[in-house]
Amino acid sequence: MADLEETLVPLVRSTLSEVLNAEGLVTEAMRDLVRDEIKAYMRAKLEEDQELKQEIKDALTLYLESRAKELLATVRLAKAGTKMSFAMLPEGLKEDIKGEILKMFEAEISEFLERV
Question: Between 46 and which of 39, 51, 53, 58 could a Cys-Cys bridge form, CB atoms 3.0 to 4.6 Å apart?
Fold first, then answer.
């Protein structure tokens, strides 16, 4: 009886696990199908109303521009913060730190340009 349990229990567990995984796959596929249908419906509605389509494009453009401006402001704040930090350093350390920072940025910029 113990041999039967040792064989049967793992078999039932693995079968149950496979069934549940398949059910999850089906659920995920259904979600994707529903999303695709909603997207198709929305695209059809946008094609019917060109004014709404343009309004969405304009809003998206404005949104992306504002995100870019936010990034620019962040860079400028970082630059000002760096200048402030340098102003507070003792004269003897400024050159050493400046050299280290330049090396760091040089490596980062080189990597970035290689990826682009």
Answer: 53
**DSSP classification of residue 49:** -
- 79 token code pair: 């630059």
- Reduced to 3 states (helix: H, G, I; strand: E, B; else coil), residue 116 is coil
Tens digit of each residue's pLDDT (9 = 90 or more) over 3-44: 656 766 676 677 767 766 667 777 888 999 999 999 999 999
Burial class of 46 by CB neighbour count within 10 A (0 to 12, 13 to 18, 19+) = middle
How much is the pTM? 0.54
In this structure, are residues 46 and 52 in contact, taking their beta carbons and an 8 Å threshold? Answer: yes
Six token digits for residue 83: 């200048």
- E strands in 1-116: none
Q: Is residue 59 within 8 Å of 51, Cβ to Cβ?
A: no
Residue 53: burial class (beta carbons within 10 Å; 0-12, 13-18, 19+): middle
Q: Which amino acid is at 50?
A: Q
| Structure letter (DSSP) for residue 89 | S
